[in-house]
Amino acid sequence: MIITTLTMRTRDPIGPHSRLPGLSGAESWQAHAHGARPCAIAGTRTWGRGLRRTRGRGGYMGGSSRASRPAPALRAPPDRSMGGFHPTPWRRHRPFRCPSRGRAGASHVTGNGAAPSGSSDSGPGRRGQALRRRRGAGGPELRGSRVSGAAETGSGGGPETSAWAAPADWPRGIMSVKAFRLVPAVEREMLMGDKVRINIECIECCGKNLYIGTNDCFIYHFLLEEKISATGKITFAATKQLYKHLGFKKAVNELKAASALNRLLVLCDNTMTLVHMMNLEPVPSGARIKGAVTFTLNENPVSGDPFCVEVCIISVKRRTIQIFMVYEDRVQIVKEVLTPEQPCAVAVDGHYLCLALTTQYIILNYNTGNFQDLFPYCSDEKRPIVKRIGRQEFLLAGPGGLGMFATVDGISQRAPVHWSENVIGAALCFPYVVALDDEFITVHSMLDQQQKQTLPFKEGHILQDFEGKVIVATDKGIYILVPFPLERQIQDLLASHRVEEALVLAKGARRNIPKEKFQVMYKRILQQAGFIQFAQLQFLEAKELFRSGQLDVRELISLYPFLLPTSSSFIRSHPPLHEYADLNQLTQGDQEKMTKCKQFLMSYLNEVRSTEVANGYKEDIDTALLKLYAEANHESLLDLLVSENFCLLTDSAVWLEKHKKYFALGLLYHYNSQDAAALQLWVKIVNGDVQDPTRSDLYEYIVDFLTFCSDQELVWKYAEWVLLKNEEVGVQIFTKRPLEEQQKNTFNPDDVIRCLNKYPKSLVKYLEHLVLDSKIEKEKYHTHLAVLYLDETLRLKSVATDSCAELNGVQTKLRSLLQKSDLYRVHFILEKIKGTDLHMENAILYGKLEEHDKALHILVHELKDFPAAEDYCMWSSESKNLAYRQRLFHMLLSVYLNPGPSDCELVVAAVDLLNNHAAEFDAAQVLQLVPDNWSLQLLSPFLTGAMRQSIHTKRMTQIALGLAEAENFIYKHEKAKLKGRSIILSDKKLCQVCQSPFCEPAFVRYPNGGMVHTHCAANNRLVNANMTHRFSSPSSQT
Amino acid sequence: MKKPDGKVVLLGDMNVGKTSLLHRYMERRFQDTLSTVGGAFYLKQWGPYHISVWDTAGREQFHGLGSMYCRGAAAVILTYDVNNLQSLTELEDRFLALTDSASADCIFAIVGNKVDLTDECALQPEAEDENRSEKPVTSCISTKVQKQVRMDDAIALYKKILKYRMLDEKDVPAAEKMCFETSAKTGYKDLLWHLQECLGLLFVLCHQGHLGSLKAHNHPDLLQIERKATLWTPRKIS
Description:
The complex is a heterodimer of chains A (1038) and B (238).
Chain A: H1 2-11, H2 16-19, H3 25-36, H4 38-41, H5 47-65, H6 72-82, H7 87-114, H8 124-137, H9 139-157, H10 159-163, E1 180-186, H11 188-191, E2 200-206, E3 209-214, E4 218-228, E5 234-245, E6 252-258, E7 263-268, E8 271-276, E9 288-290, E10 292-297, E11 309-315, E12 320-326, E13 331-338, E14 345-349, E15 352-356, E16 360-365, E17 371-376, E18 386-390, E19 393-398, E20 402-407, E21 417-418, E22 425-429, E23 432-436, E24 440-445, E25 451-456, E26 460-466, E27 469-474, E28 478-483, H12 486-495, H13 499-508, H14 515-535, H15 539-548, H16 553-557, H17 583-587, H18 591-608, H19 618-632, H20 636-642, H21 649-658, H22 662-671, H23 675-687, H24 698-707, H25 712-725, H26 727-730, H27 732-735, H28 739-744, H29 749-756, H30 760-773, H31 779-799, H32 805-820, H33 826-833, H34 839-848, H35 852-863, H36 866-876, H37 882-897, H38 904-916, H39 923-929, H40 936-979, E29 1004-1005, E30 1011-1012, H41 1014-1023
Antiparallel strand pairs in A: 1-28, 2-3, 3-4, 4-5, 6-7, 7-8, 8-9, 10-11, 11-12, 12-13, 14-15, 15-16, 16-17, 18-19, 19-20, 20-21, 22-23, 23-24, 24-25, 26-27, 27-28, 29-30
Chain B: E1 6-12, H1 18-27, E2 39-46, E3 49-56, H2 66-70, E4 75-81, H3 85-95, E5 107-113, H4 151-164, H5 175-178, E6 179-181, H6 191-207, H7 211-217, H8 220-231
Parallel strand pairs in B: 1-3, 1-4, 4-5, 5-6
Antiparallel strand pairs in B: 2-3
Helix pairs in contact in B: 6-8
């Protein structure tokens, strides 16, 4: 039955499923069996066998769907889609199937029980373990358990559903990796028709040329056309070109194409001959290599000669390997090497032969003859496999069904893969190692050495790869293992959340895919993997994947409901990077998970917002971050808003309002230059109209804000409110304005004062600011401030008891102002002060009016504060000269002495004054003032001081004089030096007076340089009296 | 795949806990393992170097592969079970010969595993659950047993190895530093971390043949390594 449909199939590019509705009954089932179950095709010719194979089919499904058996719900859709159509043929076959399972069927049941449940093993790790456990059992159980895995679906799910459990193109996520699909290439009838005894012995594939050698000494040449159906499935159509009998009765042992030479190398009857690739005619020269047991081509020859190939043969001579160069029509032996034992298989790379000897594998350098043992094995028990898998690396069948990797240095760089004990052949299709045993084709990854796929395949005996194409053959038919596109495999892995494997596979594919394409693909895979990790709350891993995958952060943000601004133009990438609509779906409403996800996003966005990842959509990121912070009541919300950010106003405002983050909202307004709105909001918070406890010192914050606010109107608008709340703090909006603004004088002090008139404390502070800090020299402010101080002092004096701290404070300020300022209206203040007991202030005012006697009088007689009086003398004369100061001190002395010596207190004060300030007095005057009855002793400190001062002055003067003279002398000396140049007297120099030459050495030189005879000078002097001023004394000679 | 800069190989009889030790090292936890088939390896970054750490199969069946795994190894860790004297004897009888293919200046460490099962263990295991037999071969399930192998035996073996390799004791790390007792189960002294800490650089340097020149010049790197190595002196279990 299958035969009939097979021919159709190989020609029909349309996949079986799409054809299903068009077929009916049994036919449809078979068609399906082809597409989905290569095993059913493999060597099934009769109904009986085909039916027996239904077990194998199950095996296929089980083998690959081991990771997760589809849940019934998942299986339902295909059932439905097929309607009632499909089950019918199945049911029809089923009665036949059951009895035919026979012994094997029984073993499934036991195996099934023993094998770990496949349905729960979804993680890669556990799956690996499960595999290993099965493998570990080794030997016969291995078969059983593997088949049992296969039987699981059949026995567990019921035949109807299991038939659909895992069609080859079943959507991803259910099966383990589907690395390959088995596609028939050459069917039996095309080769040998119904001749039973004819078997395929060897194959070779080179480009589109497929050569087959048979056991009856025929070579067949086919052209293999690859066809891709609309659904992307690859099928092959082989057309027979030629066939040729070699003229022996032996089987054709090996075929190898040397396409560069256009030759096919044929090994038959221990002789290797050369035939033309196209017409299969032997080369005219008849070149051949005799005595070859087997041969292999060196795919990495050391000689770069393009017109020959290097062939290595195991000779019929014992323990001998021969290396030949094969040209178009001749062969040439280049080397013969003896091996330690009889070789039975060989692979070659460069100078290195990898040999399976009788008891061990070795690496032999045929150039040097050196060899290296690899590991022992027993060639009696099993067929060795030596397979070159790449530059300087081989794959060998090791003990315990291991596929061992070995380099030419005898080192293993990869962990071994675990095959079954009876592996027949191995092939490589990066990144997979494919192995064939008598029941299965197994696929292992070279990257992680794990088994990835099992395809049931009975009676296979050849498995080889040709330029990346993996071909497997039974005695009668040839099939091609078509790899699924790597991208699809990776997607399958991702869909089953096997991130590690997917990434390993993707990385491994790097060298097989063009760089640009790879980068795009790899990025996407990283992103997808990131989302898988994210969904499992593996945030660290997710972050790393997002980072390395350069994820558009909005993809992540868009998972969180409402976070992206409504204005965002973002659309999720298509195809989607993940399967989740939003976070609710992902966490299934679990609040705890939700919180964790949000925290992750917060930290992630915070990390990326300042990196180049954020370029182009900073608004989206910052807005999302703001929303997250606001929602989580996170302290960084404020940091975000006060630093540079791109939060979108409208979106964020709504959100902040919703979460009652009014203060933050104000900050947002401010950031968007809407200070008025910000202030309005904050004022509301302070007034208690809205609640937001973010800042307890919000009032101070507002004051500060207004202080630095450059918008005058706004300041004026809120000035009243601020001052009403707190005069003293509020006035800062005027007094603490930034310096540069003060210089520009944007606020007119008069306006401010007018405004502050209602707030006395503020007014004082403001005037203090103007007068004391800004040092504005305007009489108005000084007087105003003095009056305010004075009023306050008087007010306090009237209410408070004495020595009140507040009073003292104000009074000190008043005095200090009166003393230091020269700008206020003295008379006006004096007017106000008169009649009060503010004597000190009074004295200061008199001092300002230069009425020192009045001032001193008050100080001495009314206050009796002598130190104050002395102080007065000091500060009043501070910027004046010494005489002024002396005058003041004398004035004070006379005030002390004037009432007469009767007042003892004043006398003491006078004596103290004299003794303490000896230097401030003119001693001579003082002595006249001092009453005669004062003892010398009383005044001795003064006198000593005065004397000392006087002497000091005298000596200082003398020194100054001496120094001045010395200086003068130095200048004179310098001047003389400058003028005293020597003069050369010659015949040519003439006297300026008589215009005759000098006859004797003596001459007269005028300061202007003119020279005359001495006698002329004498005469001239008489004539010109005005020339008498100094001239240099006659200086001499030549 | 990046080519590793050095290779460390774990050797030892089956069921002594090689895979578990490696798990403890790589993942910092104990995990039930299955009998290793063939071998497995891990890549690990030690400073600037990529080190491949090979876990080998102890089963007799795979014994032939050991020599290939050891080829060019910069360090070999011989593992035994402190409760199984035979496992120590096997190291000498069966595994030492495998190291012939290791690099000439290969470093050896001898590790006794499963101290958590002995009554001399100073530390309490993490859990006292009943099915704590980490290997089927372990005869003791719930009671602690007398330790079968003493540290001295291991040290004696180490010295034998040096003789076998014809190395001078002066040229290699001292026996006391290279013989450990540990437990993969409880994590009591994570052997490989210590090795990494003490000797990571040393391995690499040996591997690259730098050690000789470093020694000649009293290179600070080497001094540092030696200092590190002395920092970690095996604690006597009391």
